[in-house]
Fold:
Amino acid sequence: MSHNKTMMQYFEWYLPNDGLWWKRCAAKAENLATLGITDIWLPPAYKGTSQEDVGYGVYDMYDLGEFDQKGTIRTKYGTKEEYLEAIRAFHDAHIRVFADIVLNHRMGGDEVEEVTAVTDLAEDRNVQVGDREKVLVWSKFNFPGRGGKYSTFTWDHRHFSGTDYAEGEEYQNRIFRFTGKKWEKDTDPENGNFDYLMGMNVDMGNPVVIRETRNWLNWYIEQTGIDGLRLDAVNHISFSFYKNILNSIRKERNEELPAVGEYWSGDIGRLLYYLDSVDNEMSLFDVALHYNFFNASQAGADYDMREIFTDTLIEERPDKAVTFVDNHDTQYGQSLESFVSDWFKPLAYAMILLRDKGIPCVFYSDYYGNPVKNRPLVPNLGKMIKIRYSYAYGEEEDYFDDSHIIGWVRRGDMEQSDSGIAVLLSNGEGGTKRMFMGTQNAGVVFRDAIGNCPEEVVIDDDGWGEFRTEGGNVAIWVREKAFEELIVND
Structure:
C-alpha cells in the first residue's frame, strides 16, 4: 500500500545554539513517521563561520562537526556522529532525508590575498563603475584544523569570481568582480545578473571547481547516506551547472537522488524557464504559490479565492512542484519576510496537504510553534498531515465557483481503507456547497475532522452531499470511521 508523500522542513532560523539538534531529530524520527511524514529536510550540516551559524555562511563542507575550526568542533546542531545517528534514525523510521546543499558562496576565509578587481553596480551587475584596483580579500581557505583529511583541496582567489568585502573602510558595501572573471550569463536576470549573492562567490564555470564539487558531493552522499538534495539559491548559480552535475552524479552512482531547488521568485515564467533550462533534473519550491497565500492572508475577504492557484507551479507543472506555506527565510525578521497571517495558515495548509498534486513541505515552526518570536503553532496541522497520509485519496474534483468559498472532493479508493474527503474553506463568511462524492459513497456519514461543524453529512443515493464551513476557516469532512480513528489518535 503506497501513501502520499509529505516533507517537513525540520528546522527554523531561531533554534538554540546548544548542539543538541541532531539528537532531537533522532528522538523525533519515529513520532514523525507515525504522523505521516515521509521526507525530512535537515539544515546545512557543515562548518560555518561560527558555532552560531544557521548553516548558510559556509566555511568547510568536509567538516560536519568533527574538527576544531572557527572556534568550535560541533556545529550549531551537534557533531558529525550525532548527524549520522539522526540520519540512521530517520531511515529506521522509513523517512527519506534531504540534505541542504549550499554551493554558491563561502565565508570565513583563513587568509587574505591581494587581487585585482573592478567594482560593478549593485543594482545592475552588467555595469562597471570603477577602474581596476588592487584589494585585499579573504579568499584563501586552507582548513588548517582539518589538516587535509577527506580532501587536500584548498580554495584561493582563482576559484571565486567576486566578493562584497575587502580590507579597508573605503572598500565596504561594494561588489567586486575579480579581473579575468565574468558573472555567469545563465542566472536570474534580477539586478542585471544575479550570479553574485554574498560572501566569496564560487566560480561555477571553473573546471577545477566543477571537479571538486563533484568529488565533494560523492563523498557527502557516501559519508551520510542521504536520500535527496535541497539545493540552495539555484537562481544565483549557472543554470547549466546543476543540469550537468545532477545528471552525471545520478548516472555515475546509479541512484535516483531526488533534488528540489530554491529559486526565489514569485514570477511563474522564471520558474518554468528554469525547469526547462535544467531539463527538469529537479523540482522547485512553489514560491509563486507562497506569495499567493501571503497576499490572500493580507487581503482577507477582498481576495478572490478562485485565483489562489493562478500562475503557480502547482497549476503549471505539478509534477515538479514542492508546495509550502512558509520557511526559515520568510519568517519574521528574515531576509525574505513574507509570513502568511495566522488566520489563513489552516486554509493554506489544507490547500497543499489535502490535494492530489505536488509534494507539500510543512514548516517546523508551523507545526511546533515558535516561542522565540511568540508565534503559535498552526491548529490541526498534525491532523491534516494524518488525513493526507491515510485518507486523502481517489479522484479529485474542484468546486472553485465562488470568490470566497471554495472546495474540492477526493472520492477515495479501494486500496486505502476509509479514504475519501471533502474540503471546504472560506476567506469571508461561512456557508455550504453541494459536492459530488460519487455513488460509491451513497449512505456514508461524513464528519468535520477539524470540529468546527458538529453536524453529520450523509451522502444521498445520487452521491451528493451538502458540506459546510465556518467563515475564515476550513472544514475537512472525512468518513465517520476515519473521524473516530483521528479522535483516538489525536
Summary: The chain has three domains: 7-103+207-390, 106-202, 396-488. The chain has a mean pLDDT of 95. Residues 216 and 222 are 10 Å apart (CA to CA). The longest strand covers residues 111-120.
